[in-house]
Specification:
The protein is an alpha/beta fold. It has a single domain, classed as 3-Layer(aba) Sandwich (Rossmann fold). The protein is about 35% helix and about 20% strand. An 8-stranded mixed β-sheet has the order 1-2-4-3-5-6-7-8, with helices on both faces. Helix 4 packs across helix 5 and helix 6 runs antiparallel to helix 7. The radius of gyration is 18 Å and the shape is globular.
Length: about 290
Amino acid sequence: MNFLKTLCTLTALLPMASLLAQSTIPLAPSGKTVYGNNPNVGHYASIRGFKMYYEVYGSGKPLLLIHGNGGSINNFTNQIPYFAKNYKVIAVDSRAQGKSVDPSDSLTYEMMADDFNALLNVLRLDSCYVIGWSDGGIDGLLLAMRHPEKVKKLAITGANLWPDTTAIEPSLFQWIVSSSDSLARVAQTPTVKAQKKLLNLMVLHPHMSTTDLKQVKCPTLVIGGDNDVILPTHTLAIAQAIPKANLWILPNSGHSTLIRYKDTFNRTVGDFFNTPYRPIKGMAKLD
C-alpha cells in the first residue's frame, strides 16, 4: 500500500482528496529527474498479457526495485544512483502503473508478483535482491513466497498483510474506502477506472496471514516508520513471523522512510544485503 501518488491523483478527481493531500505526508520525488523516463536505459518486456516497462542502471548483482500503489520508477530517485554503484538495478513500473499500461479490470498483488517473476525470466536472472516500498513490499513478500528461488534477500518498508484497521491507520483506511465508493459514483472515464482499480487493490487486498510468512525463506529486513500509516504493531508482527527477519523502526517517520531517511535507509539496506544473516538465540540475546 502506497498512498502518495494515489493521493495526488485523487486530488484531481474528488474534492475530499484535497484535504488529505495537504497533510504532512512527504510526496515521492516526481518529474524533476530522468528516472522512469530515460530512453537510454528504458525497455519494455512483453509478459503475461501486457508490456512491462523497466530501466536498468549499473552492473553487478541484480537488485529489483518495486514501487507502491500508483507510483513509478521515479519513486526510487534517492535509491537508484546509490545502489547502481554496486548492483545491476532493475527499476520497474508495476502492472497498470507508470508506463506499464494494462487496461484490464482485474489487479491483484499475486498477479504483480508473478509479473516480476516473469520479468526476471525474460532477463535470464535466476535470483536477485529486492527492495519493496508499500505495495512493493507486499509484492516482494509474495514473490519470495510464490517464487522463493528468485529472492536472495528482501528489504520491505511499509507493507501490510491484510486490509483493515488492525493493519492500517483507521482514519486513513476509512478514507480510502470512502474514496473508492465515491469514484464508483462519478463518470467512468479511463482515468477514473484506472484509479478505481488501484483503490480497490488497497481496499480488498492483500490476504496473507502471519502463518503464510513462514514460507519466506530468504533473510528479510522489515522496515516501518514509528508513525507509519501501517501500524508499527503490524510491522512487528510481520517481522516476528518471518523465520530470518530483522526489524527496523525509524523514529519520527511516516510511510516515506526511504525519502525522509534516504541516506540512512540506503546504507542500512546496503549493509543488510552485504552481511550474512545472524540468528541470535539463547544467551547471545544479551549481547
